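Backbone-to-sequence.
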């Protein structure tokens, strides 16, 4: 009987395809750079001049040019898309509102995190366990999600969110704290306020 040996497959750290298939993705240039830094032997096997010449020898010159133009166009589109997403993330801000419920009780509302691909339910659960309070995810009037946390933990929440965004490489994102107080009931004209 022959012994079955598992084949070890090496995956790209950029697009998560095997390096032989990176050319079908949209970030070939970054994939090549990553492969050259992490596995020079495989890079030489796939992208050396000899390897490229043998792969393209069966294609006509016109077809080769067309393929390279399409690939360059795809790469430019993908780079522009990633740049737009990064600018959108950096331009947005996280808003932490401290809302007064009663005289001494507060709720904080955290909104603006949906842009950063953060799982709101997991974050609410983390806040609930970290701050030992109740936390939930609700929808706002404009159909965006926000996290409501009971208690005045806005400073701690701000620190945690800044650390979370920093881990994602988004240091320039603004995290703003706002105090929102309930409006007091207006007394009728001529009536004296109760003491």
């Amino acid at each position: 009987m022959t012994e079955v040996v598992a084949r070890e497959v090496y995956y790209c750290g950029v697009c998560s395809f095997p390096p032989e298939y990176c050319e079908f993705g949209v970030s070939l240039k970054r994939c090549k750079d990553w492969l050259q830094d992490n596995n020079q032997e495989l890079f030489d096997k796939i992208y050396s001049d000899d390897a490229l010449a043998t792969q393209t020898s069966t294609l006509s010159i016109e077809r080769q040019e067309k393929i390279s133009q399409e690939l360059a166009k795809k790469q430019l589109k993908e780079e522009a898309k990633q740049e737009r997403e990064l600018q959108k993330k950096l331009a947005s801000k996280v808003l932490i509102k401290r809302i007064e419920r009663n005289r001494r009780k507060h709720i904080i509302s955290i909104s603006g995190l949906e842009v950063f691909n953060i799982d709101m339910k997991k974050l609410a659960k983390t806040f609930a366990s970290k701050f030992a309070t109740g936390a939930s995810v609700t929808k706002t009037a404009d159909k965006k999600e926000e996290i409501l946390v009971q208690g005045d933990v806005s400073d701690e929440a701000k620190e945690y969110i800044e650390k979370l965004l920093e881990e994602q490489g988004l240091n320039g994102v603004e995290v703003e704290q706002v105090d929102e107080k309930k409006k007091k009931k207006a007394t009728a004209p001529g009536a004296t306020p109760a003491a």
